[in-house]
Structure formats: C-alpha cells, structure tokens
Amino acid sequence: MPDRYAVFGNPIAHSKSPVIHARFARQTGQNLVYEAIEAPLVGFADAVLAFRAAGGRGCNVTVPFKERAYALATWRSPRAEAAGAANTLSFAGAEIRGDNTDGIGLVRDLSDNLGFDLAGKRILLLGAGGAARGVGLPMMECKPAELFIANRTVGKACELAARFDCHGGGYDALVARRFDLVINATAASLAGDLPPLPDDIFAPGALAYDMMYGRETPFLAFARRHGARCADGLGMLVEQAAEAFFVWRGVRPQTAPVIKLLRGS
Ligand code: ATR
Q1: Does the C-beta of 226 come closer than 6 Å to ligand 1?
Q2: In a mutational test of the pocket of ligand 1, which residue from 186, 212, 213 has the highest number of ligand atoms less than 8 Å from its CB?
Q3: What is the DSSP letter of 24?
Q4: Mean per-residue pLDDT for 3-29?
C-alpha cells in the first residue's frame, strides 16, 4: 500500500502539487500517492484529522488554511514559528508536526535556479501579509545587506520588520532608493493592480520576482519596462514542494526537470 499525502486548500482544483509530488515520487522511487482535498472554509481541522485517521502520513496546506494548520500543530519548527503559519504537516503517532517550507523554497529558487545570491544584496519585499511573513526569516539568514519591507498599511510593514529585525515602511519611503532584488508578495496582482513603486527602484542588473505564477502580472510588466530581469513564483512552488517531500521522506528530489515540465504545459 502506498503512503498517503494530500494538499488542503480552498479552492484547490487547480493545484499543481499532486503533479509535482507524483513526479518526485517516480523520480526517487518512493511509494506514495498525493491528492488535492478541498476543505470547507469552516472545517479545516476536521478534514485534516479525518485524513490522518484514514491513514494519511502528512499534508501540505495552502490558502486560506496555513495559520489554522499552524494552530493545529502540536510541534512547530523554528521556520514555522517565524512565519506564524504552516504549509507542511507530518503525522507521527499523536503528534502533528508543523513546518513551513515556503521561505526556503523562495531562497532555493533564487540561489539554485536563478543564480541570485542574497548575501550582501539590497532586498525590497512588497507586502506584509502571510506570503511576506513566510519568507522573512530564511531571507534574513542569507545575510543580505538590507531587507526593507514596504506595505500599503504602514503599521503592518513595521510590525513585520520588527519581527525579522529589518526595516519597514510605506511606499513613500522608497523614493530615491535602489534595490538589487524586489519581491512582490502582495495580493495586488490578483486585482490587476501594481503597488505604487518609483520608476527607478531597480538597481542595474536587478531581479524582479513575483510570487505569483501562470501569467504576466502588472508588477513583472513594470519591471520589464524598467530593465529588470524577471522571474515568477513557479520555481518557488516546486522548491517548497521539494523541501516538504524531504521533510516527509528524507529524500531530496531534483526540481529542475519538474520546473521544466510545468513550464512546458
Ligand atoms: P497573503 O496572505 O496572500 O499575503 P494578505 O494577508 O491578504 O494575503 O496580504 C495581502 C498583502 O497584499 C498585504 O500586504 C496587502 O496590503 P495591506 O496590508 O495594506 O492590505 C497587499 N495588497 C493587497 N492589494 C494591494 C494593492 N492593490 N496594492 C498594494 N498592496 C496590496
């Protein structure tokens, strides 16, 4: 019998995680199945516990349940603690281990796939919601010259900056500043909006990274117009999955062929 895993979200129909984990399993010879489960908005914990009772070994968790997964965990990794959210749960007897692989997924995509070393770089993180909170600690661990968090609601940027021991403020604080890497962790793209960035925010050779994938966002279009190198969040998606796979199975799958496959389809 293969071991069972799943991803819980709402909505979840378009999740690429089942394809990613099926590829990882085939590549590494691991005997497992991985499905997508839509949990009701008010029944997340029950859905996860039912999955565990039916023999599930662990699960990924996506929007809007990552904070609830964190609350459900009986043990939390330091990176889950830092994010205040869990995207990876492992079931071990009565214990539910909560982890967060989003930040390391972003860092690995930047360093391994895009050749961008964060050490000594000036980094601008746009947004102060869950997506931004998930990546702060792993980025600070790479010792950038600076991490600045900009957000529409200034208080939230300052709060997050205090949490990660970096700087934060509103978009008006970006005037006359230049960054080597600008990461869009806002939900602005969902509404077709662009965060209010100065035209000259990108240092020469800068990388613009949008955590969204699947379409050209207003942020990436803006970055392209202003000469920045552009990347979407597909690599981060595959890298966070690979780290979750490693947490569960102790085996590290190769990500490059899976990223290539998803880009092709
Ligand atoms: P997530 O958990 O996916 O990060 P969230 O917690 O709703 O989602 O946070 C969304 C982020 O996108 C927030 O930083 C939000 O800014 P506010 O804190 O000021 O609400 C940001 N955001 C959403 N729409 C935006 C827009 N049109 N322009 C700029 N920032 C936006």
Answers
A1: no
A2: 186
A3: H
A4: 97
The pTM is what? 0.96
How far is 234 from 132, CA to CA, in rounded Å? Answer: 16
Q: Ligand 1 atom closest to Cα of 126?
A: 14
Per-residue confidence band for 190, with pLDDT thresholds at 50, 70 and 90: confident
With a 6 Å cutoff on the Cβ, whether 189 touches ligand 1 is no
Domains of the chain: 3-100+236-264 (3.40.50.10860), 103-232 (3.40.50.720)
> CA-to-CA distance for 170 and 197, rounded, in angstroms?
10
Residues carrying an active site annotation: 66
- 176 SS3 class: coil
Tell me the two tokens of residue 66. Answer: 């990552």
Whole-number average pLDDT of the chain: 97
pLDDT digits (tens, 9 = 90+) for 96-125: 999 999 999 999 999 999 999 999 999 999
